Amino acid sequence: MKKPKYEMIKDALRKEITSSHHFNPGDKFYTEAELAKKFNVSSITVIRSLNELVNEGYLVRFQGKGTFISRARKDQPIKFSDEEVFPIKNDHVKVLTLEPGNNPEILKKLNLAKDDTYYIIERVRYNVDDPYIFQKSYIPSAYIDKSDLNPVYYTSIYRRFHEDFNIDMSQQYFRETNDVRLDIPEKVHQELELNPHEPCVYQNRLTVGRDSGNTLEIVHSYKKWNYFKIKIQSNDWE
Protein backbone atom coordinates (compact mmCIF):
# COMPACT_ATOMS: atom_id res chain seq x y z
CA MET A 1 0.00 0.00 0.00
CA LYS A 2 1.44 3.33 -1.07
CA LYS A 3 2.15 5.87 1.66
CA PRO A 4 0.12 9.10 1.66
CA LYS A 5 2.03 12.07 0.27
CA TYR A 6 2.14 13.86 3.63
CA GLU A 7 3.81 10.83 5.26
CA MET A 8 6.42 10.63 2.52
CA ILE A 9 7.21 14.32 3.03
CA LYS A 10 7.29 13.88 6.80
CA ASP A 11 9.74 10.96 6.49
CA ALA A 12 11.98 12.93 4.13
CA LEU A 13 12.03 15.95 6.45
CA ARG A 14 12.64 13.83 9.54
CA LYS A 15 15.61 12.21 7.83
CA GLU A 16 16.95 15.64 6.89
CA ILE A 17 16.56 16.87 10.47
CA THR A 18 18.25 13.87 12.10
CA SER A 19 20.99 13.05 9.59
CA SER A 20 21.87 16.36 8.00
CA HIS A 21 24.36 18.92 9.28
CA HIS A 22 22.24 21.61 7.64
CA PHE A 23 20.11 22.08 10.77
CA ASN A 24 21.07 22.50 14.40
CA PRO A 25 18.77 22.60 17.46
CA GLY A 26 17.04 25.98 17.58
CA ASP A 27 17.52 26.72 13.85
CA LYS A 28 14.61 28.10 11.87
CA PHE A 29 13.05 25.49 9.60
CA TYR A 30 11.61 25.82 6.10
CA THR A 31 8.50 27.94 5.67
CA GLU A 32 5.27 26.36 4.45
CA ALA A 33 5.69 28.12 1.10
CA GLU A 34 9.24 26.80 0.70
CA LEU A 35 8.14 23.25 1.43
CA ALA A 36 5.13 23.45 -0.90
CA LYS A 37 7.49 24.52 -3.69
CA LYS A 38 10.20 21.98 -2.71
CA PHE A 39 7.81 19.01 -2.87
CA ASN A 40 5.34 20.45 -5.40
CA VAL A 41 2.34 19.91 -3.14
CA SER A 42 -0.42 21.99 -1.60
CA SER A 43 0.04 23.97 1.59
CA ILE A 44 -2.55 21.71 3.25
CA THR A 45 -0.30 18.67 2.69
CA VAL A 46 2.73 20.56 3.99
CA ILE A 47 0.90 21.72 7.12
CA ARG A 48 -0.13 18.14 7.92
CA SER A 49 3.47 16.93 7.55
CA LEU A 50 4.74 19.74 9.79
CA ASN A 51 2.08 19.07 12.42
CA GLU A 52 3.14 15.41 12.56
CA LEU A 53 6.78 16.42 13.11
CA VAL A 54 5.73 18.85 15.83
CA ASN A 55 3.71 16.12 17.57
CA GLU A 56 6.70 13.76 17.38
CA GLY A 57 8.98 16.36 18.98
CA TYR A 58 11.24 17.17 16.02
CA LEU A 59 9.90 20.68 15.45
CA VAL A 60 8.38 23.49 17.49
CA ARG A 61 6.16 26.26 16.13
CA PHE A 62 5.81 29.80 17.43
CA GLN A 63 2.93 31.94 16.26
CA GLY A 64 4.15 34.89 14.22
CA LYS A 65 7.75 33.61 14.22
CA GLY A 66 7.72 30.34 12.30
CA THR A 67 8.87 26.75 12.72
CA PHE A 68 12.12 25.78 14.44
CA ILE A 69 14.20 22.65 15.07
CA SER A 70 13.49 21.33 18.55
CA ARG A 71 16.29 21.91 21.05
CA ALA A 72 15.53 18.47 22.54
CA ARG A 73 16.70 16.26 19.67
CA LYS A 74 14.86 12.95 19.34
CA ASP A 75 16.55 9.69 18.38
CA GLN A 76 20.04 11.08 18.86
CA PRO A 77 22.45 8.30 19.90
CA ILE A 78 24.04 8.96 23.28
CA LYS A 79 26.21 7.15 25.80
CA PHE A 80 24.51 6.66 29.14
CA SER A 81 26.12 5.03 32.14
CA ASP A 82 25.66 4.59 35.87
CA GLU A 83 28.60 6.04 37.78
CA GLU A 84 29.62 4.30 41.00
CA VAL A 85 30.42 6.74 43.79
CA PHE A 86 32.57 4.28 45.74
CA PRO A 87 35.23 1.66 44.90
CA ILE A 88 33.54 -1.37 43.33
CA LYS A 89 35.64 -3.68 45.52
CA ASN A 90 33.55 -2.47 48.49
CA ASP A 91 30.33 -3.78 46.94
CA HIS A 92 28.72 -6.94 48.27
CA VAL A 93 25.25 -8.46 48.13
CA LYS A 94 22.91 -10.07 50.64
CA VAL A 95 20.00 -12.19 49.35
CA LEU A 96 16.92 -11.72 51.54
CA THR A 97 14.29 -13.75 49.70
CA LEU A 98 14.09 -16.51 47.10
CA GLU A 99 10.57 -17.83 46.76
CA PRO A 100 7.98 -18.73 44.10
CA GLY A 101 5.00 -16.50 43.33
CA ASN A 102 1.91 -16.46 41.14
CA ASN A 103 0.38 -13.01 41.52
CA PRO A 104 -1.87 -12.56 38.43
CA GLU A 105 -0.66 -8.99 37.88
CA ILE A 106 3.01 -10.06 37.85
CA LEU A 107 2.24 -13.09 35.66
CA LYS A 108 0.66 -10.76 33.12
CA LYS A 109 3.67 -8.42 33.13
CA LEU A 110 5.97 -11.42 32.61
CA ASN A 111 3.74 -12.68 29.76
CA LEU A 112 3.16 -15.95 31.62
CA ALA A 113 0.08 -18.17 31.73
CA LYS A 114 -2.27 -18.00 34.72
CA ASP A 115 -1.12 -21.42 35.97
CA ASP A 116 2.58 -20.61 35.58
CA THR A 117 4.95 -19.42 38.29
CA TYR A 118 7.85 -17.06 38.74
CA TYR A 119 10.45 -16.51 41.45
CA ILE A 120 10.85 -13.45 43.65
CA ILE A 121 14.41 -12.59 44.58
CA GLU A 122 15.00 -9.74 47.03
CA ARG A 123 18.53 -8.47 47.51
CA VAL A 124 20.34 -5.63 49.24
CA ARG A 125 23.64 -4.27 47.98
CA TYR A 126 26.14 -2.75 50.39
CA ASN A 127 29.04 -0.36 50.23
CA VAL A 128 31.05 -2.04 53.00
CA ASP A 129 28.41 -1.87 55.76
CA ASP A 130 26.16 0.80 54.25
CA PRO A 131 23.09 -0.60 52.43
CA TYR A 132 22.52 1.52 49.35
CA ILE A 133 20.16 -0.34 47.00
CA PHE A 134 17.21 -2.71 47.48
CA GLN A 135 16.34 -4.86 44.46
CA LYS A 136 13.27 -7.01 43.95
CA SER A 137 13.43 -9.24 40.87
CA TYR A 138 10.65 -11.26 39.27
CA ILE A 139 12.00 -14.08 37.09
CA PRO A 140 9.98 -16.75 35.22
CA SER A 141 10.48 -20.16 36.80
CA ALA A 142 11.81 -21.45 33.46
CA TYR A 143 14.94 -19.37 34.11
CA ILE A 144 15.55 -20.64 37.63
CA ASP A 145 17.70 -23.74 38.14
CA LYS A 146 15.59 -25.78 40.59
CA SER A 147 18.52 -28.06 41.42
CA ASP A 148 20.02 -25.39 43.67
CA LEU A 149 17.67 -22.92 45.34
CA ASN A 150 20.18 -21.74 47.91
CA PRO A 151 19.70 -17.94 48.15
CA VAL A 152 23.48 -17.42 48.22
CA TYR A 153 23.54 -18.83 44.69
CA TYR A 154 21.70 -15.70 43.50
CA THR A 155 23.94 -12.92 44.76
CA SER A 156 24.54 -12.27 41.04
CA ILE A 157 21.44 -12.89 38.93
CA TYR A 158 23.25 -12.04 35.71
CA ARG A 159 25.85 -14.71 36.48
CA ARG A 160 23.09 -17.27 36.98
CA PHE A 161 21.54 -16.43 33.61
CA HIS A 162 24.94 -16.75 31.95
CA GLU A 163 26.14 -19.94 33.63
CA ASP A 164 22.80 -21.77 33.85
CA PHE A 165 21.17 -20.72 30.56
CA ASN A 166 23.98 -19.21 28.45
CA ILE A 167 22.19 -15.84 28.36
CA ASP A 168 24.21 -12.63 28.50
CA MET A 169 21.75 -10.25 30.14
CA SER A 170 23.79 -7.19 29.17
CA GLN A 171 23.12 -7.97 25.49
CA GLN A 172 19.32 -8.37 25.72
CA TYR A 173 16.58 -5.85 24.99
CA PHE A 174 15.71 -3.72 27.99
CA ARG A 175 13.73 -0.68 29.06
CA GLU A 176 14.36 1.23 32.28
CA THR A 177 12.77 4.21 33.95
CA ASN A 178 14.17 6.22 36.87
CA ASP A 179 12.30 8.60 39.14
CA VAL A 180 12.69 10.05 42.62
CA ARG A 181 10.24 8.83 45.27
CA LEU A 182 9.40 9.72 48.84
CA ASP A 183 6.73 7.03 49.24
CA ILE A 184 9.00 4.12 50.11
CA PRO A 185 7.71 0.63 51.10
CA GLU A 186 8.29 -0.12 54.77
CA LYS A 187 10.53 -3.11 54.09
CA VAL A 188 12.76 -1.03 51.81
CA HIS A 189 12.85 1.73 54.41
CA GLN A 190 14.09 -0.71 57.03
CA GLU A 191 16.60 -2.56 54.87
CA LEU A 192 18.20 0.65 53.60
CA GLU A 193 18.12 2.24 57.06
CA LEU A 194 16.57 5.39 55.66
CA ASN A 195 15.87 8.50 57.66
CA PRO A 196 12.25 9.71 57.82
CA HIS A 197 11.22 11.38 54.53
CA GLU A 198 14.55 10.48 52.89
CA PRO A 199 14.06 10.05 49.12
CA CYS A 200 15.18 7.17 46.92
CA VAL A 201 15.67 6.77 43.20
CA TYR A 202 13.18 4.15 41.99
CA GLN A 203 14.38 2.14 39.00
CA ASN A 204 12.00 -0.10 37.05
CA ARG A 205 13.73 -2.33 34.50
CA LEU A 206 12.29 -4.86 32.06
CA THR A 207 14.61 -7.26 30.18
CA VAL A 208 13.45 -9.29 27.17
CA GLY A 209 15.39 -11.98 25.31
CA ARG A 210 16.80 -10.72 22.02
CA ASP A 211 16.46 -14.14 20.37
CA SER A 212 13.56 -15.73 22.24
CA GLY A 213 11.36 -12.68 22.80
CA ASN A 214 10.65 -14.01 26.30
CA THR A 215 10.49 -11.71 29.30
CA LEU A 216 13.55 -12.62 31.36
CA GLU A 217 13.33 -10.31 34.34
CA ILE A 218 11.43 -7.45 35.87
CA VAL A 219 13.36 -5.72 38.63
CA HIS A 220 12.23 -2.91 40.92
CA SER A 221 15.11 -1.14 42.65
CA TYR A 222 15.28 1.55 45.32
CA LYS A 223 18.61 3.33 45.41
CA LYS A 224 19.67 5.85 48.03
CA TRP A 225 19.73 9.31 46.50
CA ASN A 226 23.35 9.97 47.51
CA TYR A 227 24.48 6.88 45.58
CA PHE A 228 22.76 7.90 42.36
CA LYS A 229 24.98 9.39 39.67
CA ILE A 230 24.70 9.09 35.89
CA LYS A 231 26.83 10.25 32.99
CA ILE A 232 25.36 11.20 29.61
CA GLN A 233 27.43 12.19 26.60
CA SER A 234 27.16 12.28 22.83
CA ASN A 235 27.82 8.93 21.21
CA ASP A 236 30.68 10.18 19.03
CA TRP A 237 32.71 11.82 21.83
CA GLU A 238 35.43 9.52 23.10
Automatic annotation (TrEMBL):
<dbReference type="InterPro" id="IPR011663">
    <property type="entry name" value="UTRA"/>
</dbReference>
<keyword id="KW-0238">DNA-binding</keyword>
<keyword id="KW-0805">Transcription regulation</keyword>
<dbReference type="InterPro" id="IPR050679">
    <property type="entry name" value="Bact_HTH_transcr_reg"/>
</dbReference>
<feature type="domain" description="HTH gntR-type">
    <location>
        <begin position="3"/>
        <end position="72"/>
    </location>
</feature>
<dbReference type="GO" id="GO:0045892">
    <property type="term" value="P:negative regulation of DNA-templated transcription"/>
</dbReference>
<dbReference type="Pfam" id="PF07702">
    <property type="entry name" value="UTRA"/>
</dbReference>
<dbReference type="InterPro" id="IPR036390">
    <property type="entry name" value="WH_DNA-bd_sf"/>
</dbReference>
<protein>
    <submittedName>
        <fullName>Transcriptional regulator, GntR family</fullName>
    </submittedName>
</protein>
<dbReference type="InterPro" id="IPR028978">
    <property type="entry name" value="Chorismate_lyase_/UTRA_dom_sf"/>
</dbReference>
<dbReference type="GO" id="GO:0003677">
    <property type="term" value="F:DNA binding"/>
</dbReference>
<dbReference type="Pfam" id="PF00392">
    <property type="entry name" value="GntR"/>
</dbReference>
<dbReference type="GO" id="GO:0003700">
    <property type="term" value="F:DNA-binding transcription factor activity"/>
</dbReference>
<keyword id="KW-0804">Transcription</keyword>
<dbReference type="InterPro" id="IPR000524">
    <property type="entry name" value="Tscrpt_reg_HTH_GntR"/>
</dbReference>
<dbReference type="InterPro" id="IPR036388">
    <property type="entry name" value="WH-like_DNA-bd_sf"/>
</dbReference>
